[in-house]
Amino acid sequence: MMINQFLNYLRYERNSSPQTVQTYEESLREFESYISLRDTGLSLQAVDADLIRDWMESLMDKGNTASTINKKLSALRSFYRFSLRRKLVEKDPAHGIVGPKKSKPLPQFLRESEMDQLLDRLEWDDSYKDVRARTILLLFYEAGLRRSELTGLNDVDVDFGSRQLKVTGKRNKQRVIPFGQELTDALRQYLEARREQFGLRENGALFLSDKGERMTGSQVYLIVRKYLTLVTSLKKRSPHVLRHTFATAMLNNGAGLESIKKLLGHESVDTTEIYAHTTFEQLKRIYKEAHPRA
What is the C-alpha to C-alpha distance for residues 272 and 265, in angstroms, rounded to an integer? Predict the structure, then answer.
């Protein structure tokens, strides 16, 4: 009876679509069936918060995703808000109940062997395009930059003396990233190739397009996608994958989350913690090397 009143309210007062009404009805009938199986004498008026939580747990046990459970919980919240306003219940048992958090997808990254193949075993020539492409790939991998950060780099941001890169990130926050000999050599080779291609330039954009203009994010994306396609079967082949690869490599080789946070320019270490899954790969490797039966 209560459910029918709520559904009529959706149809005739809220003018909800038939699809919305059907979706809400399915969730509410499912909940009604659940409580009747728990206790044949239990009514929708007698439901408490613990019972709703038990229902959510049963949905999880059946393999429902967090998104699906939250949609069902939303229907239940709307139903009990309506019932409280119409004085069909004395209290709203769904008020304050928090649904399950949606799990964040793990970052996709290339294996070290794939990066070695990309940077060392592909056939690179001395043309401006090839030198530029390899330098861009190496810079993403060694510095963990965002695409916008790379395209925003200027010549003055590269300090060869101290081997430091000044990067302007989100909300114009700047950070300094150290780099090693390999990237030093690659950047010097790139600047020489650029000089031969476009002549002497100072204090302008670091990476130039084929027309001598600052490279756009789309141009960088196409370069990265082209070369990642040659070495990986990952569905995502974007510059951000190389940023993930940088963070994963750092963590797997002993860097702490706080240090990686600073290098990536994250506001909070909570954002960086998504890379902690890679420590499991390290554990597997140690186990394989150390256990006699592995």
Answer: 10
